């Protein structure tokens, strides 16, 4: 698999000036914040998309916006590629460097700057982890809603760059719906502020543009996010079905009836078995598919919403309905779901696909996915944000077997094309990165791509920010 995806060829002129560049960068960041020894660079060679790796020219770990700006000004002046990096949990290879690139790591910028309960906002540096925000305000009855399963590690800067989602985004929206402002370092080192503590930033919606721009329009160094009050109560409920298709159609009917629980998560039988073995969450093992549906509010509100959902589930032949009885049980149910990728990694290597489909197509796409996987003689575990139609087939393979790896990649590409052809799109929350870059022409016409590239070029005419990602490489140098 490792040579299938191309990177822009390294610029010989940059590589030949490495010693000089390292000396210059050392002047721009505090002592110990420049990483260049070969062994020390290894952790920065890849991210959550482990099938690919490249050793960067160097890594800088600034502590302030001013240092980020100085690094950008320098790299812009000498046209040195820059790859921003948060925690490196990207599943699409977004943070994988190229050989002539400086990795700009934001993990040292991990301070919470301001918590403002009156305005219900938190302002944090880009390297603060997603979970840190909720932990910082939890005792006061607040939380930050987007909750990627990687929230223990991933940073708010990475979340913004990928417009990340999570299990509870069905009701609360993804990162873009919870972001109010950013401090952004532009490619030439200029620092700008977009938005603030108020809703709806003035002027063009540049904040919306930055969210999901995969590190190609600027470096986020600070973010102001929305805080929400914790609900009065929350209850996850397990619904077990005899087929994946019945579960998929049930999801479509719940949303189609205008019912919006906080979360609707799906697991097929392999995923149930993998997660149960890891978390001992009490998932039913005698069903083919499981939905975790969480409702919240007062007891009366939760009872009313659940009654409507149970009625719809019965129409789809639900086999098991289990209401969670305690906070401990609820925590275990979510632990199992949120550990799904890690638990899968205990039994096999996997690549995680991330297509999104209209809910009416869920059952069809699940069936066709099984057929594609069977055609390649592979195994799959499906565990995903069903309420959002955001599918995550985890294709199991052996990373040390090139034939197996090539099959996994081919099956994954077919599944993503299937999602597009079913009226959906290539990515729900993991971004395009390098993983889906070569499929962009399946989703977009040339004229659409040209327009998007023009927007990117308006921010970065020299194309130095994360240059090997998102757009097909042909036609660029
Ligand atoms: C086990 C596991 C579970 C996951 N579950 C989810 C999930 O439920 N939902 C979800 O959406 N994702 C999920 N992900 C994917 C990943 O965690 C998210 O994409 C996350 O937002 C990446 O954050 P990061 O800090 O690790 O960023 P990185 O991986 O370091 O970088 C991701 C991208 O953001 C850019 N970037 C990083 N920081 C900045 C910055 N400050 N300014 C500009 N650009 C920047 C990088 O260049 C890169 O393109 C999961 C990953 C793993 C490994």
Task: Describe the SSE topology.
Elements: H1 12-16, H2 18-26, E1 34-35, H3 38-41, E2 58-60, H4 65-77, E3 82-85, E4 102-105, E5 112-116, E6 121-125, H5 130-138, E7 142-143, H6 156-162, H7 169-172, H8 175-178, E8 179-185, E9 191-195, H9 206-210, E10 219-226, E11 228-229, E12 234-241, H10 244-256, E13 263-268, H11 269-279, E14 289-296, H12 299-315, E15 320-323, H13 327-338, H14 340-345, E16 349-352, H15 362-375, E17 379-385, E18 393-397, H16 402-421, H17 440-443, H18 446-459
Parallel strand pairs: 2-4, 3-4
Antiparallel strand pairs: 1-2, 5-6, 6-10, 7-11, 8-9, 8-10, 12-14, 12-15, 13-14, 13-17, 16-18, 17-18
Helix pairs in contact: 10-12, 10-15, 11-13, 15-16
Residues 47-48, 83-91, 94-95, 106, 126, 148-150, 154-155, 157-159, 161-162, 164-166, 214-215, 219-220, 341-342, 429-430, 466 line the site of flavin-adenine dinucleotide (FAD).
What does the model show?
The chain is α+β, with helices and mostly antiparallel strands. It has four domains: 3-105, Uridine Diphospho-n-acetylenolpyruvylglucosamine Reductase, domain 2; 112-229, Uridine Diphospho-n-acetylenolpyruvylglucosamine Reductase, domain 3 (2-Layer Sandwich), CATH 3.30.465.10; 234-341, Alpha-Beta Plaits (2-Layer Sandwich); 348-421, Alpha-Beta Plaits (2-Layer Sandwich), CATH 3.30.70.2740. 36% of the residues lie in helices and 19% in strands. The chain contains 18 helices and 18 strands. The chain has helices at residues 12-16, 18-26, 38-41, 65-77, 130-138, 156-162, 169-172, 175-178, 206-210, 244-256, 269-279, 299-315, 327-338, 340-345, 362-375, 402-421, 440-443, 446-459, and strands at 34-35, 58-60, 82-85, 102-105, 112-116, 121-125, 142-143, 179-185, 191-195, 219-226, 228-229, 234-241, 263-268, 289-296, 320-323, 349-352, 379-385, 393-397. The strands form four sheets. A seven-stranded antiparallel sheet has the order 15-12-14-13-17-18-16, sandwiched between helices. A hairpin with a 7-residue loop joins strand 17 and strand 18. Helix 10 crosses helix 12 (299-315) and helix 15 (362-375) packs antiparallel against helix 16 (402-421). The chain is globular. The model has no long low-confidence stretch (mean pLDDT 95). The structure holds flavin-adenine dinucleotide. The site of flavin-adenine dinucleotide has 37 residues, from strand 3, helix 6, strand 10 and helix 14. Flavin-adenine dinucleotide (FAD) is lined by residues 47-48, 83-91, 94-95, 106, 126, 148-150, 154-155, 157-159, 161-162, 164-166, 214-215, 219-220, 341-342, 429-430, 466.
